[in-house]
Amino acid sequence: MSEYILEMNGISKEFTGVKALDNVNFKVKKGEIHCLIGENGAGKSTLMKVLSGVYPYGTYQGDIVFEGNVQQFNKISDSVKVGIGIIYQELALFPDLTVYENIFAGNEVKRGPFINWNQTIVESTKMLEKVKLNVTPETLIKDLSIGKQQLVEIAKALSKEVKLLILDEPTAALNEDDSENLLEVLSELKNQGISCIMISHKLKEVISIADKATVLRDGRTICTLDASKGEISESIIIKNMVGREINDIYPKRANKLFGENVLELTNWSAYDVQLGRKVVKDVNLHVKKGEIIGIAGLMGSGRTELALSIFGNPKAYKLQGNLVVNGSSKPFKHTRDAIKAGIAYVTEDRKGDGLFLIQDIKNNVTVANLHGISTNGIINTNEEVKVAEDYKRSLNIKASSLEQVVGNLSGGNQQKVSLGKWLFAGPKILILDEPTRGIDVGAKFEIYTIMNKLINEGMSIIMISSELGEVLGMSDRIYVMAEGKVKGEMAIDVATQENIMKLATQ
Amino acid sequence: MGFFNEAKSLFKVNIRDYGMYIALIVIMLTFSIMTNGLFMSSRNISNLLDSAGYIAVLAVGMTLVIVIRHIDLSVGFAAGFLGAITAILLAQVGLPIYLTIPIILVLGVVVGLFNGVLVASIGIPSFVATLAGMLIYRGALLQVTEKTGTIIINDDNFNAIGNGFIPSILQINGLHLLSLLVGLVGILLYIYSEISTRKSKLKYQFEVVSKEIFIMKLVMVSAIIAYITWILAGYNGFSWTVVIMLLVVVVYHFLTTKTVLGRHIYAVGSNPEAAHLSGINVKKITYIVFGSMGMLAALSGMLFTSRLQSATTTAGTLFELDAIAAAYVGGVSSAGGVGKVTGAIIGAIVMASLSSGMNLLGVGISYQYMIRGGVLAGAVIFDVMTRKQRG
Question: What are the residues whose beta carbons fall under 8 Å from the beta carbon of A46, sequence distance 6 or more?
């Protein structure tokens, strides 16, 4: 038998024309902790979904060899059967059930047709000892901290006799103590012969725990680094993560004239009541008139939460600190107030909370400013069509007519409809959250061109983006966020992919 | 593009909107043939519309409630309870009719807002919140009618709402003159509004349908209004119930299609998160929609009480389910954001036509329920199928 517990050879996976994985090779030795690293969209999650059987055999190319045998997983339970356990970022526990019920959910200890609860509790206690979790098995999941819930997830995987444990950003939501504790447990499991794949953005953790680290970029394996050869260091990892070429697809702006501050945040914090933690911590930030601010960072770094906390706070965070817009201090009570003050926010998830998919282009473009086309609350429908027609033309929205339902448009055209909607509201500060996610290169270029045009007309733009190329290509100044904090601010002429990524992975 | 091709493509695009009109015509024709024309007689149509009235106004409100992804189960007994209060105010307290009606309508709004608070501010699922309301109003109805039992109303003006007709100035060949005039004015108003819309569209250089199609549409709709007017004029003319029903439709149709409020209601229905992020006050919209539902429940209660000339202990039983059925037959979608006020009225008339036609044919009540259930299921299946085709 080979020394590898897992070999993934030549894995390729396509989504309708887009190559998410391109000939990826990935090998894990028995009893090692192997970290998987890469930017958002590099293909880490897709690779793990191929491995765990979320994407069944036949929908990808290449071989999965587990313990020396070629595997053909058709569903997730097939991979569980051979001993692969995956723990996602969003935990899959039942909050209202007890720890022992959760550990053996779907894998119940039975006597005949009945569940043997006493045996279940005895077995659960053993599992809890293995993960060093000091709670009684009767505790309800919802009464545990997230860190402890994570340990229950691991205990659950252990109960299925897992040989290879996959963790997707396990420490993203944990505080430092819990993170440290979790990493200790993983080391302990390693000593018991359990192999582990960990996806992580926190390079410090990777350096402290990994035996090997594989870097993915744009769906390809870039390299596999070996700790025993001293290859796992911050500079080597970052160099391999960001090596993407920046093509010259970013239109240049001729004259850059910045005015005074239009938006200023001081010691700005937001506490998410539902999650029970701060999602934005002590942010200081300012935006000048005619400036494009890039906010870089990885997913979950608090960028969207920051935008929402400024834009009328729709998630009802508890806010602290000071927000000044156009010279006056404004804690907005509702998104409507933020819109009135001249702020617009184009959401990250345009289908989920940006657009009205079952309505037509016309209704979507005018919805945020219906009062602009009505008298005494009665809409002038002819004026409305005219407005929508103007935006369709100036933004080059490709559709058969204004009556076309937005759900049927392509991603790029939907994004332009979103833009049109907010431009019609007449903002002075435009917040764009991942403005070019999931749209083709041609449409991207159009959106960049529109952004430059708006800046020339005196608007200011805050652009949140995970694409480093975009951040470097479009911004005048860059803030890097991680863990809800602004980790650094840099002028565009000193910013590089490496130093952004260094701050983002702290 | 030829006349027929244009007509065909218009029909295809709008099949969902036209579906229930076609269904209504098919049902009416079928019953006419099976009853040798008795179904389309003046007397029957007049009775049919009167009997649809109190459900139709509920269905209008219910459509909007369903559009914003909620439901209101309390409206049936709320209508019954408010009807009983009407009877008490008129018959026992002795308030005049012109005070009683506004008081009851305001009470209706209060009832609706109470549901709105439970749903929007406290966050109880509307199904549960309004189920609680249903039980409470049922109890309240029994409580206020406990001592007296049925409360008889002797106010002729009030009883006319459910039984009376608009006055006739003159009878010409047994036809009701004022009704004919009302119908004529209706046709003229319709033609005027269509022509002025078309003119202003042309002024803005927007696309309009060809002249032939436009004239055909004018002639067809005018003919239908004329025909209904003529039928009703042959009996006692327009009843007050029909007039009230038409008023409700016209006002709500205007509100939902032409105003900012209407657009906001549909925006909240099709994507509440996006609506919030577009600066729409989702809570306020929820209050308004439930408040309007309560007001229409009060109206429905008065129509029903007036029709019976008395308040009974069981008034309002199952009204809410009839209204929900009418709304779904009228094309509302439970996924939210889709559904028209005019559809709700047509839905209510379809359901009333089924009952009326089957009564004339002497179909047993057991079969009547089954057939109405089948039609409801069929309407929703049609809706789902046409939506799949489009998407």
Answer: A13, A20, A21, A55, A219
- What percentage of chain B exceeds 90 in pLDDT? 71
Q: Are A4-242 and A261-342+427-504 in the same CATH fold?
A: yes
Contact A382 B280 (CB under 8 A): no
Residues B267 and B376 in one domain: yes
Q: Do B271 and A357 touch (CB under 8 A)?
A: yes
- Where in chain A are the domains? 4-242, 261-342+427-504, 358-426
Is the Cβ pair B259, A379 closer than 8 Å? yes
Task: Tell me, yes or no, if B201 comes closer than 8 A to chain A by beta carbon.
Answer: yes
Looking at the DSSP bridge assignments, the partners of residue A166 are A86, A197
Mean pLDDT of A276-287: 92
- Which amino acid appears at position A65 of this protein? V
**Whether A377 and B259 lie within 8 Å, measured CB to CB:** yes
CA neighbor of A461 nearest in space, from A359, A369, A342: A342
Q: Is A377 in contact with B280 (Cβ distance < 8 A)?
A: no
Four-way CATH pick for A4-242: 3.40.50.300, 3.30.420.480, 3.40.50.1820, 3.40.50.410: 3.40.50.300
A335: nearest CA partner in chain B = B279
Interface of B with A in 164-193 (CB under 8 A): none
* Mean pLDDT to the nearest integer, A114-133: 91
Largest CA-CA distance found in chain B, in angstroms, rounded:
71
**The total number of structural domains that make up chain B:** 2
Asked if the Cβ–Cβ distance from B259 to A374 is below 8 Å, we say yes
What is the distance between the alpha carbons of residues B390 and A177, in angstroms, rounded to a whole number? 54
Residue of A nearest to B336 (CA): A358
Chain B contacts in chain A segment 414-443 (CB below 8 A): 421, 425
Q: What is the DSSP letter of B239?
A: B
B184-193: list long-range contacts, CB under 8 Å, 24+ apart: B184/B229, B186/B225, B186/B229, B187/B222, B187/B225, B187/B226, B190/B218, B190/B221, B190/B222, B190/B225, B191/B218, B191/B222
CB-based contacts of B357, cutoff 8 Å, min separation 6: B27, B30, B31, B34, B35, B39
Beta bridge partners of A34: A197, A212
Lowest mean pLDDT among A62-76, A77-91, B1-15, B36-50: B1-15
* Mutation target vs A (from B121, B261, B278, B332; most A CBs, 10 A cutoff): B278
Mean pLDDT estimate for chain B: 91
Output the pLDDT for position A423.
Answer: 94
Say whether domain A261-342+427-504 belongs to CATH 1.10.10.60. Answer: no
pLDDT reported for residue B391: 42
Least CB-CB distance to A370: which of B200, B260, B274? B260
Mutate to test the interface with B, among A370, A385, A389, A403 (most CBs of B within 10 A): A370
The per-residue pLDDT for range B307-351, each reduced to its tens digit, is 999 999 999 999 999 999 999 999 898 888 999 999 999 999 999
Chain B residue nearest residue A308, CA to CA: B277
CA atoms within 13 A on the CB side of B77: 19
Query: Which range of residues forms the domain containing residue B207?
Result: 169-238
Put simply, the answer to whether A335 touches B264 (Cβ < 8 Å) is no
